[in-house]
Specification:
The protein has a single domain, classed as Ribonuclease Z/Hydroxyacylglutathione hydrolase-like (Metallo-beta-lactamase, Chain A, 4-Layer Sandwich). The chain is α/β, with parallel strands linked by helices. A hairpin with a 2-residue loop joins strand 8 and strand 9. It has a seven-stranded mixed sheet with strand order 1-2-3-4-5-6-7. It has a five-stranded mixed sheet with strand order 8-9-10-11-12, with no helix packed on it. It is built from eight helices and twelve strands.
Amino acid sequence: MPSHATPPVDAVADGVLRLRVPVPFGRLGDVNVYLLQDRDGWTVIDTGLNMPAARAVWRAGLSSAGIDFADLRRIVLTHSHPDHLGLAGWLQRQVDAAGGAAPVLLTEREQELARYWSAAAASDEPLKQLFRRCGVPEALLDSVAEDLRRLRQATRPHPTEVRPLRFDEPLRVGDRRFDVLHTPGHSDGHAGLYDGADRLLLAGDHVLPHITPTISRWPSTAPNPLGRYLQALRAVERLDVRRALPGHGEVIDDWPARLQALCTHHADRLASPPWSGP
């Protein structure tokens, strides 16, 4: 896990700060959390996992930027994966204790998917059945289930005030007007935020600069996630993007080139013969 000897906060656009919050997921290293200057405070985009190192980075980063928890006005989540959702409830509690309020905004489909992480005793059997059909050895299934139980712990406490983030309604943050884009594939209800006036895109995990986003199938996933991902890639290709702020890794300043690389990667994989094992 990367070391954060200094508060990991930097400016990545006008009125936009990035906080690099550590996550224990190998090459991902950090999740990028963004703080957008609002009219009377700050809007948070994504949060990180609830673990001691992440909480320490939040406290140090806010202090370094001169921001109090009471200054946080709302928490917008691009999707419900635990490294983006996990600290939302903790942050709400910090804001409440400081005398403020910060509702969580999440698309309706992602609210449905988030219930898996919030369930006190979610059943792992549907996932095990899916993995069995995919040929996962039986000996690995309990290990996978235990990993998921640990992830559920890292999303607690859960947010108490959650509001819908709607694709048909712009999100206004200060002087910015963001279109809320449906960019499925990595997660069914994944949302991107596009400020056409500044040509700025908060891309979440839809487009990453250093790896291809995971396109996975879970028991609750809508059919054909890869097909929906590629369709969403073609849709965002039409956007005029000067700078994209991803959920992990460095900012993307050559949007067309990164999209072309992702499309080429998947085209090559789809053209390859199916893997038949060792």
